[in-house]
Amino acid sequence: MTALFLRDLKLSVRAGGGALIGILFFLTVVAVIPFGVGPDLKLLSRIGPAIVWIGALLSALLGLDRLFQAERDDGSLDLLVMQETPLVLTVLTKCAAHWTATGLPLVIASPLLGLFMNMNEMAIGATALTLLVGSPAITFIGAVGAAVAVALPRGGLLVSILVLPLTIPVLIFGVSATYAAVEGPQPFLPPFLILMALTLFFAVLGPAAAALALRNTTD
């Protein structure tokens, strides 16, 4: 599992510059909002957490189609399915590597991009924390879409279409927790705990469903 994690981590960084492309797209989405909204700093500060979350969500969708594509291209996908290690653990490891290479850089970049939106320290910290907790759920959900579309031509667009509606609850509770921490008087903990529960739920359901889809694909 460790060797697979390191291998996928290297492939995620090298293959098309996935991590760099995600950060650049994240930067582009967040940076153009002030030009469209105008110089209203109070408005930017108010909508900042939602914009950062939306930008991170869209950026996370970019590289999901490559989650199993390398194994499909070189024929090793069949070996992964037939190996003694449970396929669920293999998918979980690949999801962890993918998030480390593409999702974690978005979390690290979010405080800097929060400055573009005139967000205060509390808003920046809350946004980064909710992204750290919630963004893995996007990867686990995306693994299912990537497994379903791995054998289809132009599967990248299909993955985004399949995954985006399922990530809406993660977006809602991530933004709600951030606003609760910044504005109050709503408590921060309930939406944050729900966000954690969503991540844990999809950490179990996502790899299992993706493994089932991969087995059906290779049959």
Characterise this structure.
The chain is an all-alpha fold and about 220 residues long. Helices cover about 85% and strands about 0% of the residues. The chain has ten helices and no strands. The chain has helices at about 1-15, 20-35, 40-60, 70-75, 75-80, 85-115, 120-150, 155-165, 170-180, 190-219. α2 (about 20-35) runs antiparallel to α3 and α9 (about 170-180) packs antiparallel against α10. The protein is elongated.
Which key phrases capture this entry?
single chain, 219 residues, mainly alpha, 10 helices, cell membrane, Cyt_c_biogenesis_CcmB
What is the N-to-C order of secondary-structure elements (H for helix, E for strand)?
HHHHHHHHHH
Task: Report the uncertain regions.
Answer: none
Mean pLDDT reading: 83
Largest sheet: none
Distance between the termini: 24 Å
Number of strands: 0
Rg, alpha carbons:
18 Å
Q: What's the helix count?
A: 10
Helix residue percentage: over 70%
Work out the strand percent. under 5%
How does the helix and strand content classify structurally? Answer: mainly alpha
Q: Tell me, what's the shape? A: elongated
